Amino acid sequence: MGWLRRHDPGLVAVRRAARVTIVACLGFYLSRYVLDNAVMATYALFGAVALGILSQITGDRARRLRTLALMLPVGSVLITLGTLLSVHLATATLGMLVLGFAVSFVGVGGSRLVGIAAGSQLLYILPSFPPYDPGSLGWRLLGFVLAVALLALAEVLLWPEPDPRPYRDRLRAAVASLAVCLDAVADDWAGGGRDRLAAALPAALDASEELRPSRLPPGQTPASASRRDRALTIAAATTRLLIGRAADLTRRDERTGPDLPAATALLREVAGCVAAAGAWLGGTGPLPDTDRMTAALTGFRAVRSATSPDGLPVENLRLGSTALMLAEWATSLVTALRIAAGAPVPPDRTPPEARPGLFWFAHESEPALYWRRVRGHLTPRSVFFQGALRLALALAAARFLAGFFDLSHGFWVLLTILTVLRTTAAETRSTLRPAIIGTTCGALLAAAILVVGFPPLVYAVVLPVVMVVGFSAGPLLGAGAAQALFTLVISMVFAQLSPADWHLAEARLLDVAVGAVVGIAAGLVAWPRGGSGELHRSVAEFLADAAGVVRETVRVVAEGARPGDALPRARRTGLLAETTYALYAAERHPKQGIVDWQATLSAGHHAVRGAETLVRDCPTGRLLSCVGPLDQAAADVAARFEHVALGLARRDRTALTAPTLPPPVLDWPTDLGPDLFHLSDLRVWLDGLRGDLSRVTDAPPLGAPAATASPPRAPSAT
To answer: At what angle do helices 503-525 and 411-420 cross, to 10 degrees?
Structure first.
């Protein structure tokens, strides 16, 4: 029992297996032995397996029940289509191709839909095989409805899974700790020392790490196309950016500048605004608005306009520019939370030529947002498109082979593909060996049992025990044990539906072998690198576009040039890169890569977010006297982005770190009047981007000692 609790804390896997076993067996026995209907029994059992084992229905209890309710009409439609299209091998194969793609691709709408995709596939696969019997459709649907109803009752009555920690609570912890850090930074700027900041920063860094998708349970990432999920994603990204900048400030020992008192006061307002946001997330305060931050920003800019920094080096103005950047991001954080709450939001302040802005989705309808998401991923560059097409081709090929060669129980071929085909060829190969070995062992044991020829009553008594052990084996013992026991389960089920001998186990082994061959072929032919291959390309493209944003922003602010399409293009490629990373994070990666993908994406987002603020709020064309140095600084930062982008595109390990050359030494003017503050804003943005690129990898530079002391690592924003 101690081993079991170590490998399954809280006995979550065992309780889930027991719950699904009770539902499946109750539906099966009621249909088979009480109503004497083998068709209804089959669909009651496999309906429970499809939604209880193959699907990941996540969230709290209310959300799980809503998902089950949603599956009633969806599953009924799939069963109906599978029944009708099984009239001919060609229609069944074509239906498998089209519906296999559609059911998988619909996961682009969010993790909730991804979780039910595999189970939904089985609901079409099962009726798509002979016999063609549309007259039994009513019993098939009745068996499925019985399975869903029993699963819903089990969610309430039988060891219900504990509700996961809400994403909102994770965000609240990060926002609350961020408020403490920002207030400690303000104390430091006021001369109060850094002890409080040093004490508060570790908790903030830990809380920000809890927002990483890799730290979240399946289905908890706000990844759908809805306004709420988009807003929560931006809120989390902004929180991580703010915590990262607070960490950066611990590395700088400076308290200078004519605008330092105003910057300190502004940072106090930022901390108070963030604290109010954390209180609202925790349910202990009202929903904050942006008026407070807007007033503070207006006041700070007025103070700077009335201050002459002439004669001071631009480095002495960094803290004021940093406070301004933090205040802008805090305003974005509050705006995102207001959108997530469904509250009114202020109009978009992004200039028309630079739109759509960060919150472009706030005034779009939900159907329009989902359609935009679907349309944006109908491209071979999308990992969702690649994965859906790969699976659809494999299922259609398997359906054709099973029908053409008249394989007995051919749906096992497609079921094997659902369980072994992964997003990369390497992952698929790694699952094949235990699957084949496990199936072989299970088939041999099943054949021995069937040769003995026990009466059906014996199988009915033993089935629940084997089923609960088999359903628990996957999470606890691995794919081999799960396949072996599932082979026993299927043999015992079909032995109760019709007379069976050892040839049933032989058919199971043959079908699994065919499914494995088709699965490995699909994995090798269609995008074998899965999310990793596309992630390198999409993030490289995002960083290359971010380099264009850097160059264009400096031209717009310094020279008064008209904005081009660099910002909109970078936003589009950034969204695709984010989605690609989300799928990559869901894959199994036995070896940790050297690239910190979230830090890399954060560098691109910082370029886009900072450019939006600068283009919107900085007067343009008033830095002509320092165009030369600014162009050199922008070219240096942009070249670093392009250097990392090229390394990603070529998978060149030696080029994945930013160039180690120091930033160029430039001669900055000191006689610009208040415009010197705007020059400082640009400098802080460019210097921050240069620092972001230093975090894209955890690997030390070539030739550096393997273990060296390093400052606290700032989190990425994604």
So the answer is: 50
List all residues 6 or more positions away from 352 whose beta carbon is below 8 Å from its beta carbon: none
Model pTM? 0.82
Helix (H/G/I), strand (E/B), else coil: 591: coil
Helix H segments across 250-363? 260-281, 291-305, 318-340
Q: Nearest-CA neighbor of 712 among 330, 214, 203, 172?
A: 203
* Cα(260)–Cα(258) distance, integer angstroms: 6
- What is the C-alpha to C-alpha distance for residues 565 and 516, in angstroms, rounded to an integer? 47
Q: Are 654 and 549 in contact (CB under 8 A)?
A: no
CA dist 604 and 611 (Å) reads 11
Q: How far is residue 706 CA from its own chain's centroid?
A: 32
The residues facing 595 across adjacent strands are 697
Q: pLDDT tier at 718 (50, 70, 90 boundaries)? A: very low
Burial pattern 471-489, b for ≥16 Cβ within 10 A else e, equals bbbbebbebbbbbbbbbbb
Strand partners, 697: 595
Structure tokens at 713: 């690592």
Q: Can you tell me the distance from the alpha carbon of 32 to that of 35, in angstroms, rounded to the nearest whole number?
A: 6
The first and second tokens of residue 653, run together, are 């390990």
- Residue 8, amino acid: D
Mean pLDDT of 227-242: 89
Q: Is the pLDDT of residue 352 over 50?
A: yes
**Token digits of residue 291:** 């008026």
Give residues with Cβ within 8 angstroms of 144, minimum separation 6. 43, 44, 47, 75, 76, 79, 123
The full DSSP string for 210-263 is TTSGGGSPTT-S--SSSHHHHHHHHHHHHHHHHHHHHHHHTT------TTHHHH
AA letter at 247: A
638-670: string of b/e by CB count within 10 Å (b at 16+)?
bbbbbbbbebbbeeeeebbbbeeeeeeeeebee
DSSP state of 689: H
State the CB neighbour count (10 A cutoff) for residue 335. Answer: 24
Which of 61-70, 560-569, 658-667 is least confident?
658-667
Query: For the CA atoms of the chain, what is the radius of gyration?
Result: 29
Does the pLDDT at position 339 exceed 70? Answer: yes
Angle at alpha carbon of residue 219, lines to 217 and 224, rounded to 5° = 140
Give every CB contact of residue 380 below 8 A, 6+ residues apart in sequence. Answer: 386
Q: In 315-455, which ranges are continuous DSSP H helix?
A: 318-340, 366-376, 383-404, 411-420, 425-452
Q: Which two tokens mark 323?
A: 């406070």
Q: Are 319 and 687 in contact (CB under 8 A)?
A: no
Phi first, then psi: what are they for 346, rounded to 5°? -65, 160
